[in-house]
Amino acid sequence: MSETMGSKGAISRRGFVKAACATGAALGLSGLGSMASANDWLAPASAVAEPSEKQVYTLHQFMCQGNCSLKCTVRDGRLCMIQPNDTVDGYYQHVCLKGISEIQHVYSNDRLQTPMKRVGERGENKFEAISWDEALQIVGDELKAAWKKYGHESVYVSASNEPRFGMMAPLLKAGTGCEPGIDRGVGQGIDAAKGGSGFADGTNETRDWVNSKIVIIAGNNALEASMMQAGAFFDAQDAGCEIVYIDPHFSTTAGKADQWLPIKPGTDGAFFLGMLSYVIDNKLYDKAYMREHTTLPLLVDAKTGKLLRSGKGDAPYMVWDQKKGAAVPHDQAGRNTALEGEFTVDGKRYTTTFELLKKNQRPYTTKWAAEKTSIAQEKIEEIARKYAEGPGCIGFGMGGSDKFSNPDIQGHAIVTLAALTGNVGKPGAGFGNYNGGMGRGAALASWPLPEEFVSPTLPVRADRFPVQENDVHVIISLGNTFQQYFANYNQTREWIKSLDFILHVGMYYEDTVAFADVVLPVCSKFEDTVEHSIVRSGYNHVILQQKCIDPLFESKPDFDVMQLILKSVGLDGYLPKDAEELTRYMVDQSEDLRAQGITFDKLVKNHGSMPVAGIEVPRVGFEDQAFPTPTGKLEVYYESQVPVSQGWPTWEENNEVFDENPLLEKYPLQFTQTRTRFSNHSHMKAATWLQQLHGSYLELNPEDMQKRGLKDGDVIEGFNDRGSFKCPVHANAAVRPGSARTFEAGWSKHMVEGNTQNVTNDHINPRDAYLMTGAPIPFNDTLIEVKKA
């Protein structure tokens, strides 16, 4: 058993836990304030007579996409310093505030220390400490009872990236998902054309930006939200690339970009529609690329929007062969494809989808776009011209325009611009989200499960559970999912009351804990019971986790907790014996890694990090112009969305944030939750160091402060018809007038009262059923008013 030195002398880990549990049980654990403090774990190592020290090479957590490989110093059994892995290439040696502050996350007072069960009403924060055996007995009994009463689909695993229980949901035959309403708003508008899951991962790597003449970044404060890519950002500028940043608010990225365009919130799609019109009107498009690699030449019935096929079912689409004067399959060799015109086939009139695009774009002039976005018409035209000349990239973020009601229109316009100009599949040309750098990776092997164990596809998406009839009665929440995945928090709370059982599995005493019936504590990724339990592939490397210290308190690693939950219902026999066996399997059974000579043992020998093949040059995707779509082309015409007038990107206003909304009279401020260098979603909130730097507060432009008679530091109430919250307010001229800004997903305990999710918009776009992953949750499409509390 490891020993740790407290402020009053040495105490064993288990001894500390027993004391903590005894204290908690005596006080009933009525809220976080009654939990035992972790301060003793941070006592100075100099108190130990003969200090021992070792260096451990590991990785950072999944939620942060920096893909950092870390060097950790462990002294006297305690984690005491985190640095970049100094054995990898210097370009990839990096760590940020979040990584450095993991020491305080490991030893945080907000740690869940022991299993608990609820003794008060849900939401009251009244718990008592119990043993793992008792907790797991309750969990097993509740799962079996739900299966007997409702069936397996009554259990839902609300998954996040922290903790990770990848095999649990299929083995339980439970529904699951990192909710599709999050982070896929813009992306699904792109991936419907190029193929993908809706996240629209960048088609090229950020290191490739040095080959671009222009990079347009929309709604992504990249130098904070994805700051590990700062080197690529500045390298591109040094190479002569112009970086244009689009964001309503001034930011770190705005200050370093060559141009900052302060767009009106929620109008990014209008900006790109204006660019499309300029490219079309000035014939700046690449006809050869359009003919060969896109669906722009396909023949379509202009009245119905239906594409012409050569036969029934999945028969090939048709194009017009100018030489033959006839319709031919789009993939017929030697065809001379027409991009424009009207044609008669079997007595019916057809045109090309490109002709429909030109017609659809007529209302969206650059003048119209300027009025919508508040960006000068000349500036929109300048950016469009430079992008068309190329090579150029368009990147977007997942925390700004992505969180409105209409972001798929932005994505559709972006991919259409790329299709018109050929800005994909060559050095310096690409589009998508560039979080994590989008470098090379390798496919890891998956542990095989019997075929009968699959997660069902539920008819209702999880974020709709509070408002749509469904058969889910048990929630297993992995991390702070109730706060992170649900808007209109007051409505969410009412739904929570109706559930039969809630199990929370997490590391911190975050918002979701308050609603749980049973709480199971997991440890950090720096703590473990085996030497290696995690492997990941990202940004040109395969990275292996290594244990730094034993699990603190009564917490357990992710795999161990998953195994125990499955054991409570007799399903643990399908798992590997431990996390290290799983990790070794994922590496050594990977065909990609085997071909490159990368093995588990070599990863251990190479300090937990090895480069993947091809790292010498930046990744450029789709160089062969072969896309994972039915035609193998960029399928930019969305026939399936014609019934909702989105065959081509067609502007629609947001649900709340638009100039003509009469609700602005009552609630004149657009409310936005932005991403920051201090946290990821609701993670990283447990470090006092970071809370001292950013805290939970609202920012207003000084003009809006003055209008409301507010002073810096006043406690305010932000409110609308859905609810309210109270917190300090600070003046910040970087915030656009008419907006109210805070950092994403602040914990309620850091607020004066309430939670910012109390006011957020849970509107469901009527086009929901036609979108790849459904309508996004429009957290930022929210109007509020602010007054002094």
Low-confidence stretches: 1-37, 41-48
Strand content: 15-25%
Oligomer: single chain
Question: Which word captures the global form?
Answer: globular
- Strands of the widest sheet, in order across it, are 7-6-22-21-20-8-9
Class by alpha and beta content: alpha/beta
Structural overview:
This protein is of the alpha/beta class and 789 residues long. Helices cover 25% and strands 19% of the residues. Helix 10 packs parallel to helix 15 (407-421) and helix 13 (366-373) packs across helix 14. The radius of gyration is 27 Å and the shape is globular.
Write a brief caption for the model:
Helix content is about 25%, strand content about 20%. It is of the alpha/beta class and about 800 residues long. It is globular.
What distinguishing features does this structure have?
disordered N terminus, 32 strands, 789 residues, alpha/beta, 23 helices, seven-stranded mixed beta sheet, 25% helix, globular, 19% strand
